[in-house]
Design brief:
By secondary structure, the protein is of the alpha+beta class. The protein has 18 helices and 28 strands. α4 runs parallel beside α5 and α13 crosses α14. The chain is globular.
Length: 594
């Protein structure tokens, strides 16, 4: 039994009884609707023990559940053991999300509570509609966890800085002018931005409040006179504060956002994104002024990298590729060492990257999954869970970095010892799926949902599949998971536009044995225009060899071989001149034509 979690759930149930609540929702987010969280906002992890980036917990008087997707099935099952919390596997047959479960469970007159800061307007409305059918209600109110989490970490106080225009490609003054012009055409006088990456992009501002995400805790309120940035001003240097003020960005304390919203009058019209604004802030706006509800326009602008950003992305991929090839050369020489382990792999990879210019840290916690750990899609290595790495099995490494001039995300699989025929076949099928997406040409206005089967169908034909999306957007020295675009079967209706940076990462997982994933980042680019319309393509920008020892060459078509050989030629031609002779000779062998 996990007595710590059991005691926490018991304390929450006592608080629920005092508040006359029949259920309490603990979302895996923060007051800014973030995916990745500062320690202060790890509420769901605290109440459940599950630390994955996606999932929600619901606690009732006699039941508790965690809802998460296929990326976390194995990790969540291990984390919940002995807690009394049931795992609901989203995506499995007959498994609905927690709102539907609540609607089926809570009786008429029942009350479901949640911290109003952690519940978006859209989520609240969906819950309200579902619960009303049974005569129950949703209560977006106070944070019940805070009173029982006695050693809760404080709000983060990391340093922040302004990103130079030579990296961003567009001054904040131009972005603010574009936002004002857009809002004026829509009839809005104000705009509320809660999402941290949108604020960082809009103001060319980067921080260190959230691990692996260069963000700072802030709210932005655009008014006719200025942009109010509600943030702890001590995070910024005096020089940066003065530069912001010179651009008509006025710094106010972080906790004053509600005060400024209350001061809006009836003649004001504020633009808000209901999917990315908390019910706490919405309840203030609802009473003070008119609203225009729409997706946050900066999110779409941020996703389309400008020419300067694209050029920097390609340059940072070279530095990242050099670090990766040095690492894989070291790994080859380290096989057989009793010191080789998942943790030593993570540490050495960090060292190789940190030695490069403009390195700002990892873009997420490195996944180094050997053998059965490779099948845990978002595996986290710890001193208690790590494997020694020794023949014979596969090592999956999913890693990424932030540089001042871009963000990377790459996955490779390395055979430790001699791979089996099954492993080689599985790997080759994943490679074929990767190449299918990398080489596709598609018409304008195509969505990620339309492109997802292009990769996945290769595996379907061989009665295989994977339980995650094929691709996600990536920020520019921002979040490694960035919307609005994604390549997946669900929630992927955003069209792919030239300049979007997206991952291409099909996979295959055999629980208890091994996992395979091949991931590169791709830029959407124009392809051709003819009588059938405009077509787009993907430009692969990641530079790192794909291990040929795992390829069953007979399964590849001539076109697939040509793609792989051309990719490897580009990897060697680009990275070789920057590598030491032993590493260069090794890479020449690894990238030799198939």
């Amino acid at each position: 039994m996990n007595n710590t979690i059991l005691q926490r759930i018991s304390a929450l149930r006592q608080a629920m009884r005092r508040s006359r609540l029949d259920a309490y929702i603990v979302p895996g987010t923060d007051a800014h609707q973030s995916e990745y969280l500062a320690d202060h906002w790890q509420v769901r992890a605290w109440i459940s023990g599950f630390t994955g980036s996606a999932g929600n917990v619901v606690v009732t008087a006699d039941d508790a559940g965690l809802w998460t997707d296929a990326r976390y099935y194995l990790e969540a099952a291990a984390a919940l053991e002995g807690t009394g919390i049931r795992l609901h596997k989203l995506g499995m047959p007959d498994v609905g999300d927690y709102p539907q479960w609540l609607a089926n469970t809570i009786p008429a007159g029942g009350r479901v509570g949640a911290d109003a800061r952690l519940l978006s307007v859209s989520a609240f409305r969906s819950l309200r509609e579902l619960l009303q059918h049974n005569g129950a209600e949703i209560v977006a109110g106070e944070d019940l966890i805070d009173a029982i989490w006695h050693d809760r970490p404080p709000l983060p106080s990391g340093r922040a800085f302004l990103l130079e225009d030579r990296f961003s490609g567009k001054p904040r003054t131009e972005k603010l002018l574009q936002l004002r012009d857009t809002l004026k055409k829509q009839g809005a006088t104000h705009c509320l931005i809660s999402t941290l990456d949108d604020i960082a992009w809009l103001l060319n501002l980067r921080g260190s409040d959230i691990p692996y995400n260069p963000l700072l805790m802030a709210y932005a309120l655009l008014t006719p006179e200025a942009l109010l940035l509600c943030v702890d001003g001590n995070k910024l240097s005096r020089e940066d504060r003065e530069a912001l003020l010179a651009d008509n960005v006025v710094i106010e304390p972080y906790d004053t956002i509600e005060h400024h919203l209350r001061r809006l009058h009836g003649g004001s019209t504020i633009a808000i994104d209901p999917a990315r604004t908390s019910m706490r802030l919405f309840s203030v706006v609802e009473r003070s002024c008119r609203r225009i509800e729409q997706p946050q326009v900066t999110t779409a602008w941020k996703a389309v990298k400008n020419r300067t950003e694209q050029e920097h992305i390609c340059r940072c991929m070279i530095r990242d590729g050099v670090a990766l090839e040095r690492f894989f050369h070291w790994l080859d020489s380290a096989v057989g060492s009793p010191e080789l382990s998942e943790l030593s792999v993570v540490q050495r990879l960090h060292e190789f990257r940190a030695a490069g210019d403009r390195f700002m840290g990892e873009s997420f916690r490195t996944i180094a999954g050997f053998a059965d750990h490779g099948a845990i899609i978002h595996y986290t290595v710890t001193p208690h869970t790590e494997h020694r790495i020794e023949p014979h099995n596969l090592l999956l490494i999913d890693c990424g970095a932030h540089y001042l001039d871009g963000t990377t995300d790459v996955t490779r699989v390395v055979p430790i010892g001699v791979p089996t025929a099954e492993q080689r076949r599985d790997f080759t099928l994943v490679l074929k799926a990767h190449i299918a997406l990398a080489t596709v040409r598609f018409p304008e206005r195509s969505s990620g949902a339309q492109l997802d089967p292009i990769a996945r169908s290769v595996l379907w034909r061989n009665l295989r599949d994977y339980g995650h999306g094929t691709g996600h957007g990536v920020g520019f020295f921002l979040n490694v998971h960035e919307g609005p675009q994604r390549i997946a079967a669900e929630r992927a209706d955003t069209e792919l536009l030239p300049g979007m940076l997206t991952s291409n990462e099909p996979g295959l997982y055999r629980p208890g044995r091994y996992g395979i994933r091949i991931e590169n980042l791709v830029l959407t680019q124009p392809a051709e225009q003819n009588e059938f319309g405009r077509f787009l393509r993907f430009e692969t920008v990641t530079l790192c060899h794909i291990d040929r020892r795992l390829i069953e060459a007979e399964l590849l078509t001539a076109a697939e071989r040509d793609w792989l050989n051309a990719y490897h030629q580009r990897v060697f031609r680009t990275l070789g001149p920057q590598l030491e002779q032993p590493v260069k000779r090794w890479l020449a062998d690894r990238t030799a034509p198939l």
